[in-house]
Amino acid sequence: MNGYDLVDEAVVDAPCDAVWEALLAEFRGAARWWVPSNTFAPASGSPDRVGGEVRVTVHTKGVEGGGPKLRFTARTTGVEPGRRLDVEYVDGVFRGPSSFRLDPVGDGSRTRIGMRFQGRPHGWLKALAKVTDVGLEHSKATSAAFVALGDLLAQDRPAGSAAAGTGGRS
User: Fold this and answer.
1) Which residues contact 67 (CB under 8 A, 6 or more apart)?
2) Rg (CA), the chain
3) Of the residues 9, 33, 94, 102, which has the maximum number of CB atoms within 10 A of its CB?
4) Do you know which InterPro entries this protein is assigned to (predicted)?
5) What DSSP designation does 31 have?
6) Mean pLDDT score of the chain
């Protein structure tokens, strides 16, 4: 197994700027919508600046569930505020690029968020990847996080400000 090339997407009932702010807050350690699967902690700089680094921990059995923890560092390589965030995994159990894309849907009150993950297992994860479908687990966790993001932003939206939608997915 050389690596993964996965794309996970969802449509959330919030404009791109709200989704962008929630994404950056999560990478700064907010732990509001990617938990229990992933937690993030700033390592240096800001995640929305080229060169900024974030430490990522994947909690394979949830934050409180024990199990192996997959740790790696993502360095920001490209930013288009409100639209795109590109990173490179530079240390830990993954190496390779990943990107987040935000695209307005319809009148702009909804956003398609997508993550393209092209990580390659590194170190001890190479052995685990031979017996566990790491790609499937990644997509399940990312899809669940996007649903949680949609639910969070729906709670934050003033009543009556948008039509009922997917709650996080379409």
Assistant:
1) 59, 60, 61
2) 16
3) 94
4) Polyketide_cyclase/dehydratase, START-like_dom_sf
5) -
6) 92
